[in-house]
Structures are given as C-alpha cells and as structure tokens.
Amino acid sequence: MSVVLALISLALCLIALRGWTLARDPGVGAEFAEFSLAEERVRTSLVAKLLHYLDRVVGSRAVTGSSQAARLSVQRAIAAAGATESTTYETVIARQATWAFLGGAVAVLMLLQGVVFGLPLPILGWFFPRLSLWLAARRRGGEIDRELPDFLDVMAVTISAGLGFRAALLRVSAMVGGAVGEEMLVVLRQIDLGTPRRVAFSDLRERSSSQALNEFVTSYLQAEELGAPIAEFLTTYATELRRTAGQKARTAAAKANPRISLVLTLVIMPAIAMLMIGSIAISTLAG
Fold first, then answer.
1. Are both 113 and 181 inside the same structural domain?
2. pTM here?
C-alpha cells in the first residue's frame, strides 16, 4: 500500500508541476462548446491528456452547476488578467474542478494513511486557477503602470499634431501596443459597438487592476466634463505619474533598508558569531 501511495503521489506531483507551467494559461488553449472541451492546440503529453480528460468528465459538471455570480466573478478575473480569448469562464471553472478533484484524491489517500493534513487540498486545488489569474492580473497591472506615462506622452503629441482624441487613441494603441494599447483597443471596440464613451472608460476602470490607469480614467472623465484641453491634460498627468512612480520607488527603498538589517541581524551575524566561537573552541581543544 505504501508503494502504491508513493507512486500515486509522484504522479500527482508531476501533474502539479505541469499545472504550474500552465498557470498563465488556465484554459490550456481550449474552450467549451455546449460544455464539452474542444482542443484548439495539440498537446501530446500524458499529463495534458489527463488534464483534458478530467476537464471533460469533472469540469463540465462544475460548469453546468455554477451560478451567475460565479460566472461574473470569473469573467472579471479573466478581464483583469488580460487573458487570451481561449481562456473563458467555462475553461477556468473546469480547471478549478479538475484541481479540486485531484486534491481530493490526494486527501483521501493521505487519510487512509492516517494523515489529516491533506484535508485542505481540495479547497486549495479549487482556488489554484483563480490564483494564477490573480497573479497574471498583478503582473499586468505593473506592466500598465510602467507603460502608461509614455503612452500618454505619445497621445499628447499626436493630439497636438491635429488628430482627434478617438483617432489618436486608435493610432497610438496600434502603434505602441503593450498592455495599455490592448486595453484601449478594447475600449474602442466597445465604442464602435455603440457603447457611450464614458461607459466604455468606466468599464475599463472596473476591469483593470492598475491603480494608475483607474486614476487616469477618473481624471480624464472629469477633464472631459469640464472641457479642459486634452493634450495639456495628458502631458500634465504623465508628468504626475512619473513623479508618483519615483516617490513609490524611494518609499520601497526606504522600507527595504530595515529588512536588510533584520536579515543581517538574525541570519548572518549569528552565523559569523558561531564560526568565530567554533574556531576559538577548536583552537583551545587542539592546544
């Protein structure tokens, strides 16, 4: 029984490692059609085939039984992470159910051996794909914070050259690209489909995890309502963003100094003291 448990645990560890590599793409390049998983990219590894099989068998049931609130929550997480179109609500829920099932299997095997520490594994497995989306959203938010000042500078120059705001936004988004450009292109697509400009930018503010972008949208809507010159506003706000980023960097550096001192005090200094005392003790005993 111990050998079987060891082999199953090894297999599950390999699956977990494979899952970590797929964490940035929880949908694994697939999407549901009538709650059935259809592969969009060919995956030949045994672990991927097992995950796909569990997505079809276990995940489809979870998708069918999920609520509207769960759907909205997952869709907001996908939008904040900037996931590809292949990552849908159905694929994320299915992968959550798959990891929960694997965690439950490990928990049962551990209980059979008298180990109760595996009981939280199904819960951890259920939230693992959502954790990957949250991490992707954090990375995307940092990328937007870095790109936004330069994007606004290019926008200001383009508007000063004579283009309207919408035409300038389309040209700069296509030319610059990146996370900011992708978000702005989504806004433009919504406007083309008939969404009012203020509503489209408000949706951008709600789905983005970047604090700088959210504050920019709020300031832009206020400036548009008051009739302020857009080019001047963009230049001023880009300068303010760079100043804020510099202040955050200095604050982070100031916070890092005590942490470094704590590490030196608790780790390095005791090790040096033990080395010195050990050397003196060895020299004394040898004498």
1. no
2. 0.63
Instruction: Read off the amino acid at residue 157.
Output: V
Residue 174's domain spans which residues? 140-244
| Beta carbons of 43 and 55 less than 8 angstroms apart | no
Q: Give the type of residue at 248.
A: K
Burial of residue 75, with CB atoms counted within 10 A of its CB: 0-12 exposed, 13-18 middle, 19 or more buried: middle
* Cα–Cα distance list, 154 to 80, 151, 157, 181, 223 (Å): 24, 5, 5, 12, 18
**181 shares a domain with 145:** yes
For 209-225, the pLDDT digits (tens) are: 788 888 888 888 888 78
- The string of pLDDT tens digits covering residues 155-208 is 888 888 888 888 888 888 888 888 888 888 888 888 888 888 888 888 888 888
Q: Are 18 and 50 in contact (CB under 8 A)?
A: no
- Within this chain, do residues 113 and 161 fall inside the same structural domain, yes or no? no
